[in-house]
Amino acid sequence: MLRRLRSGDDMRVLVTGAAGRVGTNMVKRLVGEGVDVRAMVLPSDPQLSKLDAFPDVDVVEADLVDQAAIDRACRDVTHVVHLAAQLVRGDSPADRFYDVNAFGTLRLLEGVVHAGAGVERFVLASSDGTYRPGKPPERPLREKSWQEPADYYGTSKLLGEIILRNHAAQFDIPYAIVRFATVISPEEAGTMFRLSFWRAVLGWQALGKDSHLWPLFDGQPDLVRILNEQAGDATDDTAVGLRDPDFQPWTISLLDVRDAVDGVYRALTEPGAVGRALNLAAMKPTTHDDGASAIADLYDVPKLMVTMPMRHRLELSIDSAIGRIGFWPQHDFRSTVKDGLRGADDYVPAHSTSGVASTWHSSTP
């Protein structure tokens, strides 16, 4: 068991987005550590039943645009883990989207200030989306890499980071920021690196600039057509990886939800996290060749590598997280898929209803 800053009875942690992919697993971890947990969820959250397994957790309903409800949620807490966010803009006006993701962080910080007692640590979940994932500025991405997202989601998360840094300086709030790679849950990992998965992801090209990957798609021909031409009559469940014109596989940094929780817990408790932004990802990026091979091997389906007209390598360095908080991820893509197949019981399933392509969209909770 990791060292706590307080004894269990004295430590009360507010977890926002507590019914989400990372959120419920974070609640599970904290409860297992003997910590008193307050779980903040959206009013009438359809995933609320996931928290039924934790009867001693104090569940509160609050929208990130409701300061009064947030103030109530922040009373008597000693630590905050802020995971809640709107992941996809959809039909939301841009100002409403930023209001939730950026000013929601501000309202939560104001709630902490209004509570008066002060918190020992405020952990903000951010994203590799702040690095412009459609056209990463360098490889691998480090915490000091240039952040100019140029899309709605990444910009909203970057604004949240800036608000946190400045509010923390203004009101002396110890904080840490964790930037997630794409978070995957074992039961959903088997939907990735499939023909149907890439049809959905590449279909975001039709969204134009309203996609976090628009810099990747910008100026390119119809990518779904290219995929379909090379796939021929392959079935939707075919294992598929993408590669560049030089036949080098694309890469992506992934993060098993269990490792995400461990990284957040360490950011909450380890002294080396204070005042830092830390990338969280698997030990190594997953190449599309390896990802497709894992699906083909474990599900006994054919494998196909499809050549795209451009290169894409989205890779995060976790050297800082290893050195500062002792973060050593235990899972890679293949082991995550295996755990999903065998029905591992050491995590709470995501129960996502938003479709397989949302998995890659959301380097998110």
From TrEMBL:
The NAD-dependent epimerase/dehydratase domain, residue ranges: 13-203
Key word NADP present: yes
Keyword NADP: yes
Superkingdom, natural source: Bacteria
SUPFAM superfamilies reported in the protein's UniProt record: NAD(P)-binding Rossmann-fold domains
Alphabetized UniProt keyword annotations: Carbohydrate metabolism, NADP
Pfam families in the cross-refs: Epimerase
Protein name per Swiss-Prot or TrEMBL: NAD(P)-dependent oxidoreductase
The organism of origin for this protein: Jiangella asiatica
